[in-house]
Amino acid sequence: MQERYAYYPGCLASLSQKELDSSTRAISAKLEIELIDMPSVTCCGAGDIHEAKPDYYLHLSARILAQAERTGAEVLLTICNVCCLNLRQANKKLQSDPAELARVNDNLMQVDIPTYSGGVEVRHLLWEVSAGDGFERFRSVAVRSLEGLRVAPFYGCQILRPAKLLGFEDPDRPESLERLITACGAEPIDYPAKVKCCGFPIVLAREDVALGELVQPLQEATDAGADVMVTPCPLCHLSLDAWQQKAANLAGRPFQMPILHLAQLLGAAAGVEADTLRFRRHVTRLSEDVKDKLRLYDPVARV
Amino acid sequence: MATIDNEHLTTLKGAYDVQLMEVSLRVQRFGGEEDSRRRYETYTVEVPTTATLLDCLDAVKDKHDGSLAYRKSCRMAVCGSCGMRLDGGAVLACKVPMRPYVDAGHVVTVAPMGNLPVVKDLVVDMQPFWHKVRAVKPWLDTSDEAPPQTEWRVAPEQQEAISKESLCIMCGCCVSECNSMEADPDFLGPAALAKAYRFVGDVRDLDTRDRLRDLNGAHGIWDCTRCYFCNQRCPKGVDPRDAIAKLGAETFREGLHDGIQTLMTDEGARHAKVFIESTYKGGYLRETELVPKTIGPLGALKEIPFALQLARAGKVPNPLMPHKAKDNAEVKRLWKLLEQQTPRHQERALRPEDVTTAKGV
């Protein structure tokens, strides 16, 4: 784990998922890591732009990486699976192909944008806190045991696959979220769809197909007796949380599954106040039972 | 030296000292349409330490149960016959060494590929797969022009553009875990779409616009949910998801020129267009513009109750005061520069007569 990170919240945590941003800042303070803001960054060009205008995506990503480099930090910290894959993919291309880096930098220079020398790594919050000294540091700040809370991990796609661009853990048998859930004192719930897709990228263009995908994890986590689900991706969060009732209509059965951002779960275990974790910004509300198990209103344990 | 009494392995005999190991496999059995019961049988076989999953299945069939059904042919990851699931993920059985599983003390589970009907045991019906591959017209279309007298001139970099897609051996591993196909069985899917790009990206093909129009409809490229299972599973490095993205990029290139918008009618393409416009205007995605511009004003009207639900949770940013990144003028300049650089039409292969003209002969 680094002491300082170039912090890249991405579109969703800056807009509709602001609770993810506030929770990330709070857990970072507990972990005593510095997040350096980059006010001029844009969307990373993920997904749709990457698909429709690949060269524009590459340049948008290069501009972000260049700004991260200028903060002096060695690692850009992302809290979104989609940003993670897309920024890593662009970074790999720029770092491994000098001719391509030169072409992109030449274009950036032509329009007075600072260039990129290839010196930044892109890493997700999940990776930083689930292994090595970051994990030890989290364990030392997880002062509130969430005992009795049954948590279904939902990884999302673009933090696992393709492994050749991500490669943090076995994409078919990941265990980083389980490790963190256990470190929070909670109980991880296993179910096959935890590595599958939430359908979000096509939820507007192909809602029926997307909901068909979304039903599966909600159904399996519910049947396995989970109290909540946790995800490292704000897109998965939005899909599982906001589209949950539409998925219930399709499945013909009710779902009442609160969805936590990873930073919210870690924050609850580290004693971050409920006002900062902002669960009221979720469409699927927490039940009183879950609030109790998350120990949201307990005074912080003194250690 | 250990003795080999397993007949199919006799080719290895004498080549070198063969070390043997015991492998246990849990294999899904299913008798076909007459048999409603899928069940698992566990077999233990003795095979050389170099054995693949396919070698183990051969040993099971030879020594334990001759009725076990699976496909195989080349045994060297070229023919694409032996696709099946190992512990839930599609692999070519002939490409997976079993030694690491034995060393880890893990008993693997072997099952047929997903997203295709099971005929018997590990054999799936590939008809739906072939039907989709045929649907993308997997051959060169040069029908508008008479064939050249001698060969086309294709530059190495032009061939390079479709080299990955040309590696496909049509084993079906990418289709097995396709999440969109699970939800929409009619989705063309990663194998057929990678094949489609192999021809859309071929500089000799003359049917690019019609191909793209077909691929932009229902069950086409915008059905892909970017789960990346196909890239993860492909045993040949085709990266079908990347091929689907290239079809999206070709749609934008071919779809926007000459003011013709016919290729851009799909909701998926419109969704992508809003993304691009958002970054141009303010740097970030404009979520409030996504819905009406993707599904149209009438569709958006139907979604008002849903939008109110989101608004109550604070999830709808104020459309009148969109979030704007600092220094976004940089991004506008960048976009304009890149647009000037983008070729409006796909390059074409040179016909021999073009080459002659170009040389001024």
Automatic annotation (TrEMBL), chain B:
Domain of life: Bacteria
Pathway: Carbohydrate metabolism; tricarboxylic acid cycle
Cofactor(s) required for function per UniProt: [4Fe-4S] cluster; [2Fe-2S] cluster; [3Fe-4S] cluster
Keywords from the named record: 2Fe-2S, 3Fe-4S, 4Fe-4S, Iron, Iron-sulfur, Metal-binding, Oxidoreductase, Tricarboxylic acid cycle
Residues covered by region (Disordered): 342-361
Gene3D superfamilies to which the protein is assigned, alphabetical: 3.10.20.30, Alpha-helical ferredoxin (1.10.1060.10)
Domain 2Fe-2S ferredoxin-type per the UniProt entry, residue ranges: 21-114
InterPro entries xref list: 2Fe-2S_ferredoxin-like_sf, 2Fe-2S_ferredoxin-type, 2Fe2S_fd_BS, 4Fe4S_Fe-S-bd, 4Fe4S_Fe_S_CS, Beta-grasp_dom_sf, Helical_ferredxn, SDH/FRD_Iron-Sulfur
GO BP annotation list: respiratory electron transport chain; tricarboxylic acid cycle
Residues of the signal peptide: none
Pfam families assigned to the protein according to its UniProt record, in alphabetical order: Fer2_3, Fer4_8
GO molecular-function terms, A-Z: 2 iron, 2 sulfur cluster binding; 3 iron, 4 sulfur cluster binding; 4 iron, 4 sulfur cluster binding; electron transfer activity; metal ion binding; succinate dehydrogenase (quinone) activity
EC number of the protein: 1.3.5.1
Family named by the database record: Belongs to the succinate dehydrogenase/fumarate reductase iron-sulfur protein family.
Name this protein carries in UniProt: succinate dehydrogenase
Organism the protein comes from: uncultured Thermoleophilia bacterium
